[in-house]
Amino acid sequence: xxxxxxxxxxxxxxxxxxxxxxxxxxxxxxxxxxxxxxxxxxxxxxxxxxxxxxxxxxxxxxxxxxxxxxxxxxxxxxxxxxxxxxxxxxxxxxxxxxxxxxxxxxxxxxxxxxxxxxxxxxxxxxxxxxxxxxxxxxxxxxxxxxxxxxxxxxxxxxxxxxxxxxxxxxxxxxxxxxxxxxxxxxxxxxxxxxxxxxxxxxxxxxxxxxxxxxxxxxxxxxxxxxxxxxxxxxxxxxxxxxxxxxxxxxxxxxxxxxxxx
Length: 261
Description:
This protein is an alpha/beta fold. 48% of the residues lie in helices and 16% in strands. It is built from eleven helices and eight strands. An eight-stranded parallel barrel has the order 1-2-3-4-5-6-7-8, surrounded by six helices. Helix 7 links the parallel strand 6 and strand 7. The longest helix is centred in the middle third of the chain and has 17 residues, at 133-149. It is globular and about 45 Å long.
């Protein structure tokens, strides 16, 4: 499971205050805790309140890289912020994210290839997010075709079908499972399958239970990446266990401990 730790985000008060005051303490602590929890990447999002988001992105990445060696996920759909982040990244990097408009895919696949970065591609375009499986799969095919055109490694593509909150549209989870299954069969190797997990249970009373259940079910249908709260131990344990049950990792009595090492 590619677990993308969501917590270094300017939407959170502690991160927002750290950016405002250029105080690295909270960022360092979050980087260490998420790394220890087993994060594959640390998502970095400056949030909407940063007065200079380009400078804020550079500062956040530099603080994180001085603290841990965990790869960075640059989380922005603003080109100048993505470029700024890439200019200071030292390790493996993920760009989160691009839409499926052909010109956007050309642009982002080009820069991702230049930096040997992985890339999250959303099944949506400038007209919005389709509601049905068929249209989303059209976007998936468009993403795959562009990857072939750019000679972009398929394993570095993470397709995000855009998961709606369950309290907005209860039909969406079943549609997601269908899409995950279809993506697995679209090419060899297949692109990765990603979701923004916290969005699914946003605003619900049983937020953690809903997220945990969707994640374990999603893994059974081929989901293998998520932007998620890696500090939720029950959530991480469920993901690790689901992959054991799906025979993706080797069982031992200490498999939970082994994963985090």
